[in-house]
Write a structure and sequence with these properties.
About 55% of the residues lie in helices and about 10% in strands. By secondary structure, it is α/β, with parallel strands linked by helices. Helix 5 (about 105-120) packs antiparallel against helix 8 (about 180-205) and helix 16 packs antiparallel against helix 17. The structure holds 6-phosphogluconic acid. InterPro entries: 6-PGluconate_DH-like_C_sf, 6PGD_dom2, 6PGDH_C, 6PGDH_Gnd/GntZ, 6PGDH_NADP-bd, 6PGdom_BS, NAD(P)-bd_dom_sf, Pgluconate_DH.
Length: about 475
């Protein structure tokens, strides 16, 4: 016998997961390179102490686990994961399971899975979303890796996951790094959702000149409609908050420089690598970069004064902004799901997009009511772009006029709305059967002899009339 699972890395997320698992009746060994951390998790465990076993050394940690051993790592992404794997490896036996539950880059997870598989260890990359509270009370869990290993650990993950109705928000999505890819795209979509909400808040407060409290009430109202989601809900609370130190509205004392740990950026990079259009997510990442350059923005304001004119109520209404947000959200999720699909194709994974939408329905940061309809649309038309499914196509045809109105008003008033504009640009391109890329192809051929395809003949490598001209010029030179 022995304990069911061991957890290495007892920061906020690791500690909270340990308590969650112990609470569900599993026996958990906990170890951290800093022994104080194991003791403080134990000290906070109350009635769960009988299931929680802090261990002082790595060898005792390994000895405390039943076979096949299950070890879950919750350490920062990158080199710290490799460092722990190097420490662990000599202690493990063939068939043991190692789970990386951090926000690792899925390419790293693919490599680690291959290396560990070669020596008979079963490796899993598991995306866990929901922050500290989620880890403690019920996260969404996107598992990737060895399917047998998943069957072995499934009872633990299903027990600790958030629930939507009776269903646990936890599932195996594919092999190797599939879970971490899905988690990265979750975070990319999280960036886009946050950006779209921030842009809407700019239109409310700077455009329509609503106060913070009134804007908070608008978000609260939206949270009772189609936009119902965790991020809208917390935004409504944030807008009503006061800074305890100064008594000012909290938002007035928070510096406007967005930080990031990297997962949203990885999503945008992956979209570029795979050639998947994901402009709303990229716009959200880009905005964070520019926001984090306050000196440039300050200088810009000095040089190009006059930004942010007020919008008039006739230009747009609160209902227009709500509808524009709905359209932006549908388009950014369309891009995110397409990215998951194409990354899955590229890696040979069979990811069920409807199941991903269901995992995200509760526990994670992007949980929202709209994910219900997304799960149905993706299940009903597999392989079809989300926004072209009957339901969302209808939603978009209703909301795009408002998005267009909001974009026009934002542009006229000089309010930056990059994610909303990226969504509109994507929509307009994606429904143009003959676009302006013929000009690009002609230019490429003109300066680089790259050739083009013709509308009236099959085949590639056709040249424009300038091909002869260029030969002549070169010949006489
Ligand atoms: C989650 C969050 C979580 C975390 C991000 C924040 O799903 O629980 O996405 O992973 O809050 O790391 O990301 P940034 O620091 O990049 O904004």
């Amino acid at each position: 016998r022995g304990n069911d699972i061991g957890i290495i890395g007892l920061g906020t997320m690791g500690g909270s997961l340990a308590l969650n698992i112990a609470e569900k009746g599993f026996l958990v060994s906990i170890w951290d390179q800093n022994p104080d951390k194991a003791m403080s998790v134990y000290a906070s465990a109350g009635a769960m102490r009988k299931s929680l076993h802090p261990v002082q050394t790595l060898s005792n940690f390994i000895l405390s686990l039943r076979s096949p051993r299950t070890v879950l790592l919750m350490v920062p992404a990158g080199e710290p994961v490799d460092a722990v794997l190097r420490l662990l490896q000599p202690h493990l036996d063939v068939g043991d399971i190692v789970i990386d539950a951090g926000n690792s880059n899925f390419h790293d997870t693919n490599c680690r899975a291959e290396t560990l598989d070669a020596i008979g260890l079963r490796y899993m990359g598991v995306g866990v979303s929901g922050g500290e509270a989620g880890a403690r009370r019920g996260p969404a869990i996107m598992a990737g890796g060895d399917l047998d290993a998943w069957e072995h650990v499934k009872p633990i993950f299903e027990a600790i996951a958030a629930r939507y109705g009776a269903l646990p928000c936890a599932a195996h999505v594919g092999n190797d790094g599939a879970g971490h890819l899905v988690k990265a795209v979750h975070n990319g979509i999280e960036y886009a959702d946050m950006q779209l909400i921030a842009e809407a808040s700019g239109l409310l407060t700077r455009g329509l000149k609503l106060g913070y409290r009134a804007s908070g009430a608008v978000f609260e109202d939206w949270n009772n409609g189609p936009l119902q989601s965790y991020l809208i809900e917390i935004t409504s609370k944030i807008f009503k908050e006061t800074d305890p130190e100064t008594g000012k509205p909290l938002l007035d004392v928070i510096l406007d420089c967005a930080e990031q740990k990297g997962t949203g950026r990885w999503t945008a990079i992956e979209a570029l690598n795979l050639g998947v259009p994901a402009g709303v997510i990229s716009a959200a990442v880009d905005f964070r970069f520019l926001s984090a350059r306050p000196a440039e923005r300050k200088d810009g304001q000095f040089v190009f004064s006059g930004s942010g004119a007020q919008l008039c109520a006739e230009d747009l209404s609160i209902a227009d902004i709500e509808a524009a947000l709905i359209a932006g959200k549908i388009i950014s999720y369309t891009q995110g799901f397409q990215l998951i699909q194409e990354a899955a194709d590229d890696n040979g994974w069979d990811i069920d997009l409807a199941s991903v939408a269901r995992i995200w329905r509760n526990g994670c940061i992007i949980r929202s009511a709209m994910l219900d309809e997304m799960a149905s649309a993706l299940a009903g038309a597999p392989g079809k772009s989300l926004m072209r499914s009957a339901y969302f196509a209808q939603q978009l045809s209703q909301t795009i006029p408002n998005l267009r109105k909001v974009a026009r008003a934002g542009i006229q008033a000089g309010q930056p709305i990059p994610a909303l504009m990226a969504a509109l640009a994507y929509f307009d391109t994606a429904r143009t059967s003959r676009c302006t890329a013929n000009v690009i192809q002609a230019q490429r051929d003109y300066f680089g002899a790259h050739g083009f395809m013709r509308t009236d003949q099959p085949g590639t490598g056709f040249r424009g009339p300038w091909a002869h001209e260029k030969t002549r010029v070169l010949a006489t030179a």
